[in-house]
Design goal:
heterodimer; A: 112 residues; mainly beta; six-stranded mixed sheet; five-stranded mixed sheet; 11 strands; 55% strand; globular; disordered N terminus; B: 115 residues; seven-stranded mixed sheet; four-stranded antiparallel sheet; 0% helix
Chain lengths: 112, 115
């Protein structure tokens, strides 16, 4: 399944499917991007990051893709599990700034 | 190795009272950030502090809100004369402040309810 944008859409998938969460960032000067996972009642948790000199980075079951031409970032989660259910936020840092700008998030619901 | 700690986790205040939110960064971290989150929204930056210094408070309302990070002790976000619109979750994050390292570690948040 796929979800687009910064509006807090909801993405529902079945356990075992691959999930794709998209994010359109706004600032062409941003050079560092992070995906966070936030479970209900908890603080955001770092998942994976990518710098603007890369277009792909892989972690454990997660991959982040960066397309600077269209200012688009995506998070791919392989073999989605019920424990992956959460709100996912992308965040961008403008060059040299320690302060990230967060998108609104996408709610991922994984059905067993 | 304890993560970022925030207390209280839940805080209820009547309109006009003061709210004090505390944040203890991860061990070895000298940079603290405060964010505010409304339901179903992303985090909005409020203030960025280093020990004894406010580096950037561009996201902080000009009135009633203040923040500090003293040499000893936790960082404090203080909201005076709270109003219903201050009800939100307030998150603190910390980072080591290393050059070219932007990863932040978040605490569990303080949920403020103003009645």
């Amino acid at each position: 399944g796929e979800s687009v944008g910064l509006h807090l859409p909801t993405l529902s998938v079945q356990e075992g499917d691959n999930s794709i969460i998209n994010c359109a960032y706004s600032n062409s000067a941003s050079d560092y991007f992070i995906w966070y996972k936030q479970e209900s009642g908890k603080g955001p948790q770092f998942i994976i990051d990518i710098r603007s000199n890369m277009d792909k980075r892989q972690g454990q079951r997660v991959t982040v893709l960066l397309n600077k031409t269209v200012k688009h970032l995506s998070l791919q989660i392989a073999a989605t599990q019920p424990g992956d259910s959460a709100v996912y936020f992308c965040a961008e840092n403008r060059g040299g700034s320690y302060i990230p700008t967060f998108g609104r998030g996408t709610s991922l619901i994984v059905h067993p | 190795n304890a993560g970022v700690m925030q207390n209280p986790r839940h805080l209820v205040r009547r309109r006009g009272q003061e709210a004090r939110l505390r944040c203890s960064p991860m061990k070895g971290h000298s940079h603290v950030y405060w964010y505010r989150q409304l339901p179903e929204e992303g985090l909005k930056f409020m203030v960025y502090l280093q020990k004894e210094n406010i580096i950037d408070e561009s996201g902080m309302p000009k009135e009633r809100f203040s923040a500090e990070f003293p040499k000893e002790g936790p960082s404090i976000l203080r909201i005076q004369q709270v109003v219903r619109g201050d009800s939100a979750a307030y998150f603190c994050a910390s980072s080591p402040g290393l050059a070219e390292s932007y990863e932040q570690y978040f605490g569990p948040g303080t949920r403020l309810t103003v009645t």
